[in-house]
Amino acid sequence: MKAHYQSVLAGCLIAAAAACTASQTNSLQFPSTIEAGTPFSVSTTGSGGAVLYIVGPGQVIRRELHRGETVAFGQGEIHSAGHYAVVLTGSSPAETAELDVTAAQQPSALSFLAKPSRLPVDEHDGISGVAYVFDAFRNLILKPADVSFDLSEAGKPAVAQTAQTHNGVAWVRLDSAPKAGIAQFEARAGNVTEKRIVQQVPGEPCQLRMNAHGAGGRIAVQTDPLLDCRGNAVPDGTIVSFKETFSGGETTVDVPLKRGVAQTTLPAHDGALISVATGVVMGNEIRWQGGR
Amino acid sequence: MAIRRRRILPVVYTILATLALSALDQPTVRVAPTDAVGPRTLETQTKDAIVRDYLAAWQALSGALAENNASLLDANFVGDARQRLRDTIRDQQKLDLRVEYNDRKHDISVVFYSPDGLSIQLVDKAEYDLELFDHDKLQATKHMQTPYLAVLTPTEVRWKVRIFQAAQ
Fold first, then answer.
1. DSSP string, A64-106
2. Nearest-CA residue of chain B relative to A171?
3. I need a labelling partner for B93 at 20 to 30 A (CA). Which of A47, A175, A216, A238 fits?
4. How far apart are CA B165 and CA B168, in angstroms?
């Protein structure tokens, strides 16, 4: 097939290149560019039966006609944006031309990717939003268009940014809010809106402090309410580790945070050193001296 | 020794000729420097994978539209791009048409790598030869030259083309 093609193509390209170009102005008359979905017509000249093809990866059309006729294409008939070969048979070789179909200008759909869906508070550029803008036929609109991105939380003014599309895509990076909670992330182009939910959770604990007291021959240890650096309560379930080191051994107890605090009891050893940690955050240390 | 050489040489020539012909069939590929691509930094390994998978997508497109076999698209296309090509194949089948797209040249520029790493956009000034068959009869051949815009997204094993559109 390739060998056959190469010989045919060589003939067509070398001998008929000029004719192919001229055919759009001689036997074939049509606009060189149309907007997807808009009606248009192709005029032909000459006489005899022929077939008109409009061919591209996105769409293919075949119409039988008599040369000299005008072929009309209705609203929505050619809807796939792309670059098409237009072929008119009835002469040897067939006449060829090219047609560009561009996306419609009116945004009709957005493909909006908001990442991540969950992140710690107060992250600089922590949230990204990427929006691809499409027309009613799902063609990417390549002409620049404004897309507004709003990140809003209940009872607070929205953080808004507008970005212009380039090659059909617009994007932003936004900071997460200082306070934990659910935020709505919205992208809007023209009358089209897409919404995503972003959950902003407390960050790492900022300060970890515990106190200890004797409790029936054991040591009761309890943390202060665990907060991140913005004052958000660290979520229950976060593991806090208490470690007691004494001569001849050590005891470690991992406790999930419950109602903002972690508490447990440890064996009482005079001179024991008790420390507390959660994740990479270290807390204070207490030296246990006979009930103090 | 001389007899053995006489037997081997034609085989060697055949292999070399085949290799030379297959090299001629390969499209010329140029990839623009990707230093300024953003907003996410594009690593060389990712760039190589993108180019490899995009060129494979062209081969899949070419085979699928030439044979009217939509299943050939599945490994390289996803979403809107795959659906649109499937629709074209369905129309070609209805009309008993086949179209061969033989890519000759790709001049690829990566223009966008999303901050989340979930989409990459490239512009390819492609040149290809189109052959149109109606009821298996060759109707026309045409050399085409047009920029294509492709958006690729990562899947389990490769990047797949999600948007594929001529960018006038």
1. EEETT-EEEE-TTTS-S-EEEEEEE-SSSSPEEEEEEEEPPSS
2. B114
3. A47
4. 9
Q: Which domains does chain A have, with CATH numbers?
A: 18-102 (2.60.40.2950), 109-201 (2.60.40.10), 205-288 (2.60.40.10)
A–B interface: beta-carbon pairs under 8 A: 142
**Is the N-terminal amide bond of B115 cis, ω within 30° of 0?**
no
CB-based contact, B133 to chain A, within 8 Å: no
pTM across the whole model:
0.79
Q: Which of residues 135-164 of B touch A (CB under 8 A)?
A: 138-144, 146, 149, 151, 163-164
What is the DSSP pairing of strand A227-228 with strand A205-207? antiparallel
Interchain contact, B91 vs A8, CB within 8 Å: no
Among the partner-chain residues A20, A82, A166, the one whose CB lies closest to the CB of B165 is A82
Residue B36: DSSP 8-state: T
Task: Provide the CB-side half-sphere exposure for A209 (13 A, CA).
Answer: 5
For residue range A247-268, what is the model confidence (pLDDT) as tens digits? 888 999 999 999 999 999 999 9
Q: Which of B92, B167, B78 is nearest to B132 (CA)?
A: B92
CA-nearest residue to A64 within chain B is: B95
Query: Each residue of B81-138: pLDDT tens digit?
Result: 999 999 999 999 999 999 999 999 999 999 999 998 999 999 999 999 999 999 999 9
ipTM, two decimals, is 0.84
In a domain, B16, yes or no: no
Domain range for B111 is 25-166
Cα nearest neighbour of B126 on chain A: A83
Picking from A9, A56, A140, the nearest residue to B141 by CB comes out as A9
Which of B58, B142, B144, B151 to mutate to probe the A interface, most A CBs <10 Å? B142
Does residue B11 lie in a domain region?
no
Q: Is residue B52 part of a domain?
A: yes
Query: What CATH number is given to the structural domain containing B59?
Result: 3.10.450.240
Q: Which of B95, B140, B164 sits opposite A60 (nearest CB)?
A: B95
Dist. CA A101–CA A54, nearest whole Å: 11
Number of domains in chain B: 1
Angle at A140 between CA B159 and CA B168, to 5 degrees: 100
Does B19 map to a domain?
Answer: no
Segment holding B87, helix H or strand E: helix B79-95
Cα–Cα nearest to B126, from B142, B102, B153: B102
Contact yes or no for A115 and B142 at CB 8 A:
no
